[in-house]
Amino acid sequence: MASHDNAKAVAESYVDVLIVGAGPAGVMCANALVHAGVTVRIVDKRLEGISAGQADGLQPRTLEILQSYGLADQLFNEGAHVHRVANYEPTPDGGLKRIRLSAASTAPNARWTFGVGMSQGRVEEIFLASMQKKGLAVERATVPTSLKMSGQADGLEDPGSYVNTVVLQKVGGHNATEVVHAKFVLGSDGAHSWVRKALGIGAEGTMTNSVWGVVDLLPDTDMPDIRNLTYVHSSEGTLFTIPRERDLVRLYVPQANDSEVIDPATGRADKNRSSAEKVLAQARKLIYPYRMEVKDNQIDWWTIYIVGQRVADRYSVHDRALIAGDACHTHSPKAGQGMNAALGDSHNLAWKLAYVLKGWAKMLLLRTYESERQKFARDLIEFDKQWSKLFMANSLSSEDRDDASKKLFIEMMNKFSGFTSGIGIRYSPSTIVNPQYQTSASNLIVGERMIPQMFICAADGRPVEIHDMLPADSRFKLLVFGGDIAVPGDLERLREATSATERPESFLSRYGRAGAVFDVLYFSSGKQANITYADFPQFYGTHWKKAFLDDVELSGRFGGGGYEKYGIDPHVGAMVIIRPDGYVGMVAPLSLHGVEDITTNFDGFLL
Amino acid sequence: MASHDNAKAVAESYVDVLIVGAGPAGVMCANALVHAGVTVRIVDKRLEGISAGQADGLQPRTLEILQSYGLADQLFNEGAHVHRVANYEPTPDGGLKRIRLSAASTAPNARWTFGVGMSQGRVEEIFLASMQKKGLAVERATVPTSLKMSGQADGLEDPGSYVNTVVLQKVGGHNATEVVHAKFVLGSDGAHSWVRKALGIGAEGTMTNSVWGVVDLLPDTDMPDIRNLTYVHSSEGTLFTIPRERDLVRLYVPQANDSEVIDPATGRADKNRSSAEKVLAQARKLIYPYRMEVKDNQIDWWTIYIVGQRVADRYSVHDRALIAGDACHTHSPKAGQGMNAALGDSHNLAWKLAYVLKGWAKMLLLRTYESERQKFARDLIEFDKQWSKLFMANSLSSEDRDDASKKLFIEMMNKFSGFTSGIGIRYSPSTIVNPQYQTSASNLIVGERMIPQMFICAADGRPVEIHDMLPADSRFKLLVFGGDIAVPGDLERLREATSATERPESFLSRYGRAGAVFDVLYFSSGKQANITYADFPQFYGTHWKKAFLDDVELSGRFGGGGYEKYGIDPHVGAMVIIRPDGYVGMVAPLSLHGVEDITTNFDGFLL
What we know:
Chains A, B: This is FAD-binding domain-containing protein. Chain A has helices at 24-35, 60-68, 73-78, 120-132, 153-157, 194-198, 276-287, 338-357, 367-393, 403-420, 488-502, 507-511, 562-566, 592-603; strands at 11-20, 40-43, 57-58, 80-82, 84-90, 96-103, 115-117, 142-149, 164-170, 177-187, 203-221, 229-234, 237-243, 249-255, 292-312, 316-317, 321-323, 329-330, 454-457, 463-465, 476-483, 518-524, 547-549, 574-578, 584-588.
């Protein structure tokens, strides 16, 4: 890289992407980019990673996402599995009674029907270990002190130009600075994001009057549902509890609006005005007559805060300096979304950045980051408001509630579960979400994540979860549902569509880049008794592991019914495009026409 | 340790167990012992671990065993999963036709309904890595040159005495020797076991006239079932193929009895009289009209050998020097048992050695190693003989076979699958296999391995496979099936049995050693809607993860029907003793009487 004529020697460097902030959004993005072959640096103001507290829960969709990076095993092994929600209501004699036990996640097609309780610090460590394998580590005790975006309009349109100039400084006594020239900058530096402010991005919304105390502890309790998610409405108020790794539990204890914990001068919650013991004492009152003591004096963490419900006006400046995670949105803890929304942001952004940087996609691809994720954040906050209101105001069994209100609460509980599982997220139509042929696979909703299903590997009869064939490896997946290849008509249609993809003008030929951009998988509706792997047309010289049957495995335990589940007629077939992030980008008829329209769609954003 | 008056200074050392031979049986035993806290050394004559060839398949029960040591993940990730068996027969026009596709494992209650194809060397590496975590490595290029057992009868009865004196020597130029004094010696040094010979143990049986050529290769073939286990009866003869890791395939090609590969002088197979190319040429004839070429010139390994069907007369001398694996038994490859039987031997032996060495069990416990494993080996060879005869002589579709013979073949195929899955192994009644109350859990056959089943954790609603609660951690497991604790009568019976176990004279008090010998798990037949974790009697102050319900998980995907599957009447209940190796040792009524009889049983072999 060229050195510049500076009066003073200043360290100067160049990087594709500079990430500011090594929380969940930051390490998620850094890990995804470095594995996609992008040059990344990631800095964080803290001297060390956090060891306790902060965000604490991973929802079913987030588990699927982490699995797609090969990073879910440790979560499953170490985290608390949250399968159930228990609702408690007061009894006339001053006690508490469990009045409802229900599934924590009701999303019908989640691969995992539970959430995982695990502290943010441990989740970050999983990403750090994965980044480390590619030689990337967080540069700690490092903060940006200046961020400038140069370049004319055409420079901004060239992803290869270093339009961002960031000055980094070490925290502490030294005044050592470094000037980093970055093609892209990502601000994943939290609710009080320095990057967001430096970019002049505002955040819509307000601080609520919802004040919370939080304690992480090792409980000694006779509360029967302490290993479940609980909502306790007692006569003294409301609290909720979430199980965590290592037998820990987190207590969320609402504080009165006029609470003494608010500093009247600033209007902000002041930790000095409370203590773990005070929050715990409040919790004890709410959970009475159950005991809530601390085992082995183990209080891992505590805090107190006012919930802000805000969404950033924009998610980037010119798509060259972007923000993600809490820098974009904050909301109440009851939705259990903080870390999940942050990870979802970066998962959405990383492959787009990689495509643009590699010269595979047009800059306009990055526009979809904001359009997809900002809408989600707004929906989330709208939901959070409704839910918070109901949550605080109502009690399921209280005599003064009418039936309609009770019914609404239950409905909201279910909606809550579906919504916050992350499974139901649907991205709106855009250049990368094309629902024009939705009927070709009527249940694979374009814009939603792929529905999990077991298929049988045609070559060896092994049952394989389709999600495991859709890793976050930066590739689009073309799923060819060719019907029953033992049926002549079906095979003919498959041949037609396949030979169309082999033409030089097809998307596969034009944008495939020798397998770097597309992976192709076949799914026949035929049965293993009739079809062998050798019966599949070897059009692309594909590996034997990529041809599947929609059949039941010989033990009878797995598979079958995939075409029906997906709403694909086996005698018509379909082609399904899965985005690198696992979302359905397009479905199309299995025909020359379908291939042409898929090609037109990719023409819109690939190079 | 005392040093001896030697004329010459000779290195001298002491160890609890000296293992000779680092094949599957040796590393399995070494790993189990070192994790149980026993001092072990393991030596092997080879300079390096093997990298290719040798044994190649792990059966469903072996997968369960490896899982119980926490060592199965790598197998599942790397190995070929063998779900299916395909039978081919000749067609009148000189071709081949698949006439049957069936499940590779038909054991109805296997946790995994497939085998794993993976080379012996990779399997050994898994154990080596696990041993390494405890600081144990194989001492290579080291052989015993002398083995003497001293000690009077009473010395032999004292597991603490170093009755074995072994001289070890480094292979190669040096003449350095070491004298090792070992309490126990294990010879896991293969079919031509030096230890077996040094102990003067004979091997019953004979060499067969069954001669095999074997090639491991990366195939380039249009054989449709190459990723399945195949038995190909062609007009030219018979061969079978087994898929392996890394897309490899092994071909087993029988050689004519009067084959030129036999050295007439010795009567043994002579590798110099054949070659990989020769065996491959034979295979090509048998598999015609399918092609069988080698991709990338990748022939990993090949060999040629005569099958010996032999079982050692004894498995030990005075239970102080023992043998395991191929040193005890050899048989044909078709049963796919070599590595599995070897691993099974050591799995059976290791916990018994640990108990005796720790002073927890009487020496007579070790007697059951031979009685259990020798009988298994004899059954295996008897089966192998029958099967080999049928396999070589018969063809399913040939015109000259009568229906009875065809039916027998199919029956044998099924028996084969059930038998060689390892799931059906039943150890005979002994001091550690007590079927006196079999009716208390009529389907949990005493002497067989525990039947897998999902139960629901009472505290958090998580579905848990019972096998995962029965790790190979050297502990017996007491499973208390207490019926529905919401039903007063059931709860009373549970209380009675539980208070009986709390008496000082009970097995739990007498032999429990503060949790080192017994782990206790509760299984209620009640439903999660009615029962919370807090309803379980906290008799033993057990952890919340150890109380279960026989119920369906809230998503409806897992669990339920466990009592029925196990043949336990919920209104009667049962206590089940699982041995440290996962086999059912005893079932008993849930009563004072039951506890007394379990105690009597443990009196028989624990100290």
